[in-house]
Please model this.
Amino acid sequence: MIELQNLEKRYTNPQTGAEVYAVKHLNLTFPDGEITALLGPSGCGKTTTLRMINRLIEPTGGRILVGGEDTRNVRPEVLRRRMGYVIQQIGLFPHLTVAQNVATVPDLLGQAKATTQRRVLELLDLVGLEPGQFAHKHPHELSGGQQQRVGVARALAADPPVLLMDEPFGALDPLARERVQDGFLDIQRRLKKTVVMVTHDIDEALKMGDKVALMNAGELAQFGTPDDLVRRPVSDFVRQFLGEDALLRQLAGRRAGELARPAAPGQNVQNLPRVDSTLDARSALSVMLRERAEAVAVMDGEQVRGVLNWHDLGPRE
Ligand code: ADP
Ligand code: MG
Model:
C-alpha cells in the first residue's frame, strides 16, 4: 500500500519569485495488488506525483508511506529496487541486446548469472516475446510495441512489488497500444503488483484502472472505480473531463464475455444476434442498435456463454 499524505510540491519561479504548486494537499492511497490510473489533463501534476513516490523528486511538504514506512527513511536506491519504473521513452540501452536490457537491474544487484538468465527468459515469455526470436536482438530491430514490452519486462526483472508507469503506452499507435494493454492486464492478473499508471488518456484509465485517481491542477478531483467516476462524478470538472460519452468509452474497454449473464427464464437465446465473447461491449451495443435487439448472445465459438442485455449496460441503482 502506498499512501500519500498531504503531499505537496512547490516550485518558485526564479523571475517573479512567485510560488506555484505542481502538487497540492494530495491525500491518496494506492491499494496493494491493484492498478490505479493517475489521470488528468497535461500539467496537472501526475508525473511529479509519480516521481515523488520513488524519490526522483523530493516533496516540499507532506509524506509518502510505502508499506507503512516513511520513504524519507529509505535510501532512494533501496526504495527504487522495490519499484519498477516504466516510461514512455522506454529508455532501452541501444547497444545492449533485449536480454541484456532486461537483465540490467538483476546484474546491478549482483544476482547469480544463471538465475538472471532463467528469469530473463521467463519474463520475455511473460510479455509475449518469444525468447528464441527476441533475446539477442537489439532495440532498433523491434517495433515500438515490442520495445515497450521489453521495458515492462525490465521493470519486472527484480520482481518489485510496485510498478510505477508514466504514460507507458503513450507512444504506440492505437492497435499496438491495445495489444500491449491487453498483454499487461493479462500479466497483472497473475502477478498482482501494486501499479500506479500515469495517463492523460481517459480510455486507457477506464480500461486499465481498478481504481482511477483524477487530478486537476495539482489536486485530487476524484478517486474511485471507473464506474464511480463515469456514473457518479463528484463535480462538474469530473463530468466535463470524462465527457458525455464516458459510459461508451468505458464499455469500449470491457469485453462482452465479461459482462455476459445467464439468459433470463423464457429468454430465447437462439433468436438473438450473436457476438463473440472477445468483442468489446461498445461494439456489442452497436450490434444491438443495428439489429434493433435488446440483447445479444455472447458466444465462445459455437457455444453460448451468456446474454448481454442493453439495460445491463446502462447506469445502475
Ligand atoms: P503532468 O505529468 O500531469 O503533465 P507534471 O507533473 O509534469 O504534469 O507538472 C505539473 C506542473 O508542475 C506543471 O505546471 C509543470 O509546468 C510544473 N513543473 C514541473 N516540473 C517543474 C520544475 N522543475 N520547475 C518548475 N515547474 C515545474
Ligand atoms: Mg507527465
Summary: The first strand starts at residue 2 and ends at 12. The longest helix spans residues 174-191. The chain has 14 helices and 13 strands.
